[in-house]
Specification:
11 helices; globular; alpha/beta; 17% strand; 305 residues
Protein backbone atom coordinates (compact mmCIF):
# COMPACT_ATOMS: atom_id res chain seq x y z
CA UNK A 1 0.00 0.00 0.00
CA UNK A 2 1.39 3.37 -1.03
CA UNK A 3 1.03 5.88 1.80
CA UNK A 4 -0.03 9.36 0.76
CA UNK A 5 1.01 12.36 2.85
CA UNK A 6 -1.03 15.53 3.14
CA UNK A 7 -0.86 18.80 5.06
CA UNK A 8 -3.18 20.37 7.62
CA UNK A 9 -2.13 23.95 8.33
CA UNK A 10 -3.57 26.25 10.98
CA UNK A 11 -1.64 29.41 10.06
CA UNK A 12 0.01 29.61 13.49
CA UNK A 13 1.02 33.06 14.71
CA UNK A 14 4.51 33.07 16.29
CA UNK A 15 5.21 35.20 19.34
CA UNK A 16 6.26 38.62 18.01
CA UNK A 17 4.66 38.16 14.57
CA UNK A 18 1.42 39.37 12.99
CA UNK A 19 -1.47 37.49 11.34
CA UNK A 20 -0.24 38.67 7.94
CA UNK A 21 3.08 36.92 8.58
CA UNK A 22 1.27 33.69 9.49
CA UNK A 23 -0.89 33.77 6.37
CA UNK A 24 2.14 34.46 4.17
CA UNK A 25 3.87 31.44 5.71
CA UNK A 26 0.84 29.28 4.88
CA UNK A 27 1.06 30.34 1.23
CA UNK A 28 4.78 29.58 1.18
CA UNK A 29 4.14 26.17 2.69
CA UNK A 30 1.50 25.44 0.05
CA UNK A 31 3.90 26.21 -2.78
CA UNK A 32 6.50 23.92 -1.22
CA UNK A 33 4.00 21.11 -0.60
CA UNK A 34 2.90 21.38 -4.23
CA UNK A 35 6.49 20.90 -5.38
CA UNK A 36 7.36 18.19 -2.85
CA UNK A 37 4.64 15.71 -3.80
CA UNK A 38 2.08 16.04 -1.02
CA UNK A 39 -1.42 14.88 -1.92
CA UNK A 40 -3.63 17.59 -0.41
CA UNK A 41 -3.47 20.64 1.84
CA UNK A 42 -6.24 21.71 4.18
CA UNK A 43 -6.56 24.90 6.20
CA UNK A 44 -8.42 25.17 9.49
CA UNK A 45 -11.02 27.53 10.89
CA UNK A 46 -10.38 29.18 14.25
CA UNK A 47 -12.01 32.24 15.79
CA UNK A 48 -10.99 34.82 18.38
CA UNK A 49 -7.61 33.31 19.17
CA UNK A 50 -4.15 34.80 19.42
CA UNK A 51 -2.58 31.59 18.13
CA UNK A 52 -4.07 31.10 14.65
CA UNK A 53 -4.71 33.48 11.76
CA UNK A 54 -7.14 31.34 9.71
CA UNK A 55 -10.68 32.51 10.44
CA UNK A 56 -12.16 32.07 6.94
CA UNK A 57 -10.93 28.87 5.25
CA UNK A 58 -13.00 29.48 2.11
CA UNK A 59 -11.03 32.69 1.47
CA UNK A 60 -7.70 31.02 2.10
CA UNK A 61 -8.69 28.00 -0.02
CA UNK A 62 -9.32 30.29 -2.98
CA UNK A 63 -5.90 31.90 -2.60
CA UNK A 64 -4.17 28.54 -2.19
CA UNK A 65 -5.83 27.15 -5.32
CA UNK A 66 -4.46 30.09 -7.28
CA UNK A 67 -1.05 29.68 -5.65
CA UNK A 68 -0.62 25.97 -6.42
CA UNK A 69 -0.90 23.79 -9.51
CA UNK A 70 -1.37 20.19 -8.42
CA UNK A 71 -2.38 19.87 -4.76
CA UNK A 72 -5.92 19.16 -3.71
CA UNK A 73 -6.92 22.12 -1.52
CA UNK A 74 -9.63 22.22 1.09
CA UNK A 75 -10.95 23.10 4.51
CA UNK A 76 -10.02 21.22 7.61
CA UNK A 77 -12.63 22.29 8.31
CA UNK A 78 -15.58 24.61 7.88
CA UNK A 79 -17.46 24.74 11.21
CA UNK A 80 -20.93 24.01 9.87
CA UNK A 81 -22.94 24.89 13.01
CA UNK A 82 -22.01 28.52 12.35
CA UNK A 83 -23.39 28.63 8.78
CA UNK A 84 -26.30 27.85 6.53
CA UNK A 85 -25.67 24.70 4.45
CA UNK A 86 -26.81 26.41 1.24
CA UNK A 87 -24.17 29.13 1.55
CA UNK A 88 -21.40 26.61 2.24
CA UNK A 89 -22.51 24.46 -0.71
CA UNK A 90 -22.62 27.40 -3.11
CA UNK A 91 -19.26 28.77 -2.01
CA UNK A 92 -17.42 25.48 -2.46
CA UNK A 93 -19.27 24.63 -5.68
CA UNK A 94 -17.86 27.82 -7.18
CA UNK A 95 -14.36 26.93 -5.98
CA UNK A 96 -14.69 23.40 -7.39
CA UNK A 97 -15.99 24.72 -10.70
CA UNK A 98 -13.08 27.12 -11.05
CA UNK A 99 -10.62 24.36 -10.06
CA UNK A 100 -12.10 21.00 -11.13
CA UNK A 101 -11.11 17.89 -9.17
CA UNK A 102 -8.95 19.84 -6.72
CA UNK A 103 -11.34 21.03 -4.00
CA UNK A 104 -12.17 19.32 -0.71
CA UNK A 105 -14.85 20.47 1.71
CA UNK A 106 -13.97 19.23 5.18
CA UNK A 107 -16.69 19.83 7.77
CA UNK A 108 -16.31 20.16 11.54
CA UNK A 109 -18.99 20.33 14.22
CA UNK A 110 -17.46 22.82 16.68
CA UNK A 111 -19.04 26.23 17.24
CA UNK A 112 -22.65 27.35 17.17
CA UNK A 113 -25.51 25.03 18.11
CA UNK A 114 -24.16 21.52 17.65
CA UNK A 115 -27.48 19.79 18.41
CA UNK A 116 -28.69 20.32 14.83
CA UNK A 117 -25.36 19.43 13.25
CA UNK A 118 -26.44 16.02 11.83
CA UNK A 119 -29.43 17.64 10.14
CA UNK A 120 -27.33 20.46 8.67
CA UNK A 121 -24.68 18.01 7.48
CA UNK A 122 -27.30 15.84 5.77
CA UNK A 123 -28.78 18.95 4.14
CA UNK A 124 -25.35 19.99 2.90
CA UNK A 125 -24.68 16.51 1.48
CA UNK A 126 -28.03 16.57 -0.32
CA UNK A 127 -27.31 20.02 -1.76
CA UNK A 128 -23.95 18.89 -3.11
CA UNK A 129 -25.45 15.73 -4.63
CA UNK A 130 -28.32 17.59 -6.28
CA UNK A 131 -27.74 18.53 -9.93
CA UNK A 132 -26.44 22.06 -10.35
CA UNK A 133 -26.06 22.60 -14.10
CA UNK A 134 -22.67 24.01 -14.97
CA UNK A 135 -21.22 23.59 -11.47
CA UNK A 136 -18.84 20.98 -10.09
CA UNK A 137 -19.16 19.58 -6.55
CA UNK A 138 -16.25 19.46 -4.07
CA UNK A 139 -15.35 16.24 -2.32
CA UNK A 140 -17.15 16.25 1.04
CA UNK A 141 -15.31 15.05 4.15
CA UNK A 142 -16.43 14.80 7.76
CA UNK A 143 -13.80 15.59 10.37
CA UNK A 144 -14.11 13.86 13.72
CA UNK A 145 -12.49 12.78 16.96
CA UNK A 146 -14.69 9.95 18.17
CA UNK A 147 -16.87 6.98 17.20
CA UNK A 148 -20.04 9.10 16.92
CA UNK A 149 -18.61 11.11 14.02
CA UNK A 150 -17.51 7.87 12.33
CA UNK A 151 -21.09 6.56 12.47
CA UNK A 152 -22.33 9.84 11.00
CA UNK A 153 -19.85 9.59 8.13
CA UNK A 154 -20.93 6.01 7.46
CA UNK A 155 -24.62 6.94 7.51
CA UNK A 156 -24.11 9.65 4.90
CA UNK A 157 -21.47 7.76 2.89
CA UNK A 158 -18.85 10.45 3.49
CA UNK A 159 -15.08 10.41 3.51
CA UNK A 160 -13.77 10.67 7.04
CA UNK A 161 -10.67 12.23 8.59
CA UNK A 162 -9.91 11.42 12.22
CA UNK A 163 -8.05 13.97 14.40
CA UNK A 164 -5.55 11.70 16.13
CA UNK A 165 -3.82 14.75 17.61
CA UNK A 166 -6.96 15.62 19.58
CA UNK A 167 -8.08 12.22 20.90
CA UNK A 168 -5.64 9.43 20.00
CA UNK A 169 -7.36 7.02 22.37
CA UNK A 170 -10.43 6.73 20.10
CA UNK A 171 -8.71 6.73 16.72
CA UNK A 172 -8.59 2.97 16.12
CA UNK A 173 -12.26 2.17 16.95
CA UNK A 174 -13.50 5.22 15.04
CA UNK A 175 -11.65 4.32 11.86
CA UNK A 176 -12.58 0.66 12.23
CA UNK A 177 -16.23 1.73 12.22
CA UNK A 178 -15.78 3.82 9.11
CA UNK A 179 -13.55 1.46 7.17
CA UNK A 180 -15.68 -1.61 7.90
CA UNK A 181 -19.08 -0.09 7.13
CA UNK A 182 -18.51 2.43 4.36
CA UNK A 183 -19.74 1.08 1.05
CA UNK A 184 -19.54 4.24 -1.02
CA UNK A 185 -16.82 3.73 -3.63
CA UNK A 186 -15.70 7.35 -3.40
CA UNK A 187 -15.53 7.48 0.42
CA UNK A 188 -12.00 7.64 1.81
CA UNK A 189 -10.46 7.72 5.27
CA UNK A 190 -7.41 9.51 6.61
CA UNK A 191 -5.63 10.02 9.92
CA UNK A 192 -4.58 13.53 10.96
CA UNK A 193 -1.43 13.46 13.09
CA UNK A 194 0.62 16.21 14.75
CA UNK A 195 4.31 15.77 14.01
CA UNK A 196 7.59 17.66 14.23
CA UNK A 197 10.67 16.53 12.31
CA UNK A 198 14.21 17.86 12.66
CA UNK A 199 17.67 16.69 11.55
CA UNK A 200 18.61 15.64 15.10
CA UNK A 201 16.81 14.28 18.15
CA UNK A 202 17.94 17.29 20.19
CA UNK A 203 16.50 19.75 17.68
CA UNK A 204 13.22 17.85 17.48
CA UNK A 205 12.99 17.76 21.28
CA UNK A 206 13.62 21.51 21.43
CA UNK A 207 10.81 22.22 18.97
CA UNK A 208 8.49 19.80 20.73
CA UNK A 209 8.97 21.53 24.09
CA UNK A 210 8.05 24.85 22.50
CA UNK A 211 4.83 23.37 21.14
CA UNK A 212 4.03 21.61 24.43
CA UNK A 213 4.43 24.84 26.39
CA UNK A 214 1.97 26.57 24.07
CA UNK A 215 -0.49 23.67 24.24
CA UNK A 216 -0.27 23.47 28.04
CA UNK A 217 -0.94 27.17 28.39
CA UNK A 218 -3.87 26.94 26.00
CA UNK A 219 -5.38 24.03 27.91
CA UNK A 220 -5.12 26.08 31.10
CA UNK A 221 -6.94 29.03 29.58
CA UNK A 222 -4.03 31.17 28.39
CA UNK A 223 -4.51 31.90 24.69
CA UNK A 224 -1.15 33.11 23.39
CA UNK A 225 0.94 32.99 20.21
CA UNK A 226 3.44 30.15 19.82
CA UNK A 227 6.52 30.66 22.03
CA UNK A 228 10.04 30.22 20.74
CA UNK A 229 12.23 27.27 21.80
CA UNK A 230 14.33 29.73 23.80
CA UNK A 231 11.29 30.80 25.79
CA UNK A 232 10.40 27.15 26.42
CA UNK A 233 13.96 26.35 27.56
CA UNK A 234 14.07 29.25 30.03
CA UNK A 235 10.46 28.97 31.19
CA UNK A 236 9.76 27.95 34.78
CA UNK A 237 7.11 25.32 34.22
CA UNK A 238 4.33 25.06 36.77
CA UNK A 239 3.14 21.68 38.00
CA UNK A 240 -0.07 22.09 36.03
CA UNK A 241 1.85 22.93 32.86
CA UNK A 242 4.09 19.90 33.29
CA UNK A 243 1.08 17.64 33.81
CA UNK A 244 -0.58 18.98 30.68
CA UNK A 245 2.62 18.60 28.68
CA UNK A 246 2.98 14.96 29.72
CA UNK A 247 -0.60 14.33 28.63
CA UNK A 248 -0.23 16.12 25.31
CA UNK A 249 3.09 14.48 24.53
CA UNK A 250 1.24 11.22 23.84
CA UNK A 251 -0.45 12.78 20.82
CA UNK A 252 2.73 14.31 19.37
CA UNK A 253 5.23 12.54 17.15
CA UNK A 254 8.63 14.24 17.20
CA UNK A 255 12.01 13.02 16.05
CA UNK A 256 14.39 12.55 13.18
CA UNK A 257 13.15 11.69 9.66
CA UNK A 258 13.66 7.91 10.02
CA UNK A 259 11.99 7.88 13.45
CA UNK A 260 8.93 9.82 12.34
CA UNK A 261 8.72 7.90 9.06
CA UNK A 262 8.49 4.60 10.93
CA UNK A 263 5.93 5.90 13.43
CA UNK A 264 3.68 7.35 10.74
CA UNK A 265 3.91 4.18 8.65
CA UNK A 266 2.98 2.11 11.71
CA UNK A 267 0.03 4.39 12.53
CA UNK A 268 -1.26 4.05 8.97
CA UNK A 269 -1.04 0.26 9.22
CA UNK A 270 -2.75 0.12 12.62
CA UNK A 271 -5.60 2.37 11.47
CA UNK A 272 -6.06 0.85 8.01
CA UNK A 273 -5.58 4.13 6.15
CA UNK A 274 -3.53 4.99 3.09
CA UNK A 275 -3.27 8.69 3.91
CA UNK A 276 -1.70 10.57 6.81
CA UNK A 277 -2.51 14.28 7.15
CA UNK A 278 0.38 15.94 8.96
CA UNK A 279 -0.09 19.00 11.15
CA UNK A 280 2.99 20.82 12.42
CA UNK A 281 3.12 23.72 14.88
CA UNK A 282 6.43 25.52 15.42
CA UNK A 283 7.36 29.06 16.35
CA UNK A 284 9.53 29.60 13.28
CA UNK A 285 7.79 28.92 9.93
CA UNK A 286 11.15 27.72 8.61
CA UNK A 287 11.09 24.84 11.10
CA UNK A 288 7.55 23.97 10.02
CA UNK A 289 8.58 23.95 6.38
CA UNK A 290 11.62 21.82 7.20
CA UNK A 291 9.39 19.19 8.80
CA UNK A 292 7.51 18.75 5.53
CA UNK A 293 10.69 18.78 3.46
CA UNK A 294 12.30 16.09 5.60
CA UNK A 295 9.15 13.97 5.55
CA UNK A 296 8.94 14.23 1.77
CA UNK A 297 12.51 12.95 1.54
CA UNK A 298 11.91 10.16 4.05
CA UNK A 299 8.82 8.92 2.20
CA UNK A 300 10.33 9.49 -1.26
CA UNK A 301 7.40 11.61 -2.35
CA UNK A 302 7.24 12.36 -6.05
CA UNK A 303 5.08 15.17 -7.50
CA UNK A 304 2.52 13.97 -10.04
CA UNK A 305 1.02 15.94 -12.88
Amino acid sequence: MTLRLSVLDQSPIPDGAAPADALAATLELARAADDLGYHRMWVAEHHQTAAFAGTAPEVLVAELLNTTQRLRIGSGGVLLPRYEPLKVAETFRILATLHPDRVDLGIGRAGGHVHDFPHKLAELADLLEAPAPGYRPPQLWLLGAGPASAYTAVTLGLSYAYAHFLRPEHSVPALEIHNARTIEAMAHSALAVRAIVAPTKAAARDLAESYLLWRSRRDLGHDEPLPSPFIARTHRWTTQEKDRADRNRRALIAGTPPEVHDQLAELAKIHGVDEIIVNTLTHDPADRLLTYQLLAEAFHLVPTA
